[in-house]
Amino acid sequence: MADVNRPGLNLLFLRDEELRQGIELLFFAYRDFTAEPDAMLAKFGFGRAHHRVVYFVGRTPGMTVGELLFILRITKQSLSRVLSQLVKQGFVSQRTGAQDRRQRLLYLTDKGAELERQLSAEQRARIARAYRAAGAQAVEGFRKVMLGIIGREDDRRRFEVRAGAAGREAAPNAAPGAVPGAASGPGGLTTGKIA
Q: Which of 16, 105, 185, 194 has an alpha carbon 20 to 30 Å from 56's alpha carbon atom?
């Protein structure tokens, strides 16, 4: 993190106008980032909550409902409604846990994996174009800014540890979505505290 007290450092980026512009940039970027997926989801009667579930279940096959609740920070009732629709329409399947039969493990079906691929394709392309245009140093600066905006330490740690562990494989018996060397929270999801 930059030392804001260092002599000669230009602090104009901390002026109110610059901060407001940062808020607006986030708004417009998010609006455009979600526009195409929103239109695709509307065809199924789905919204952004459905997109988030499909995305995270696709990223971590076999995650538990508890792990998903931990990431999304929504009520059980809201998640239940969204999951029920996705299961009923054949995008997500639920399996009983092998060790704990009370657990519901979530997986995308082939139909769900195809939806996730379509929803993420333009988003990945948009990010790739922006990264390519900005260059490696700007991408690292963007990453630092985004990590600084994320409010919860456990959520920030998820990305900090992942970056440090890039290229290494997870432990063979690690929980789905677990990060090597990190302690687990509800349902085995990384809490960000190093064990």
A: 194
**What's residue 62's pLDDT?**
96
Distance CA 107, CA 37 (A): 20
Residue 2 domain-assigned (yes or no)? no
Helix, strand, or coil here: 165? Answer: coil
**pLDDT category of residue 15 using cuts at 50, 70 and 90:** confident
Domains in the chain: how many in total?
2
Q: Is pLDDT above 70 for 169? A: no
> Domain limits at 141?
135-166+175-195
> What 8-state DSSP symbol labels residue 172?
T
Please indicate, yes or no, whether the overall pTM of this predicted structure exceeds 0.70: yes
142: which residues sit within 8 A by CB, 6+ positions away?
134
pLDDT value at 154 more than 90: no
User: 185: closest CA among 58, 73, 93, 19?
Assistant: 73
72: which 2 tokens? 């999304």
Contact 106, 96 (CB under 8 A): no
> What is the per-residue DSSP string for 28-94?
HHHHHHHHHHHHHHHTTT--HHHHHHHHHHHHSTTEEHHHHHHHH---HHHHHHHHHHHHHTTSEEE
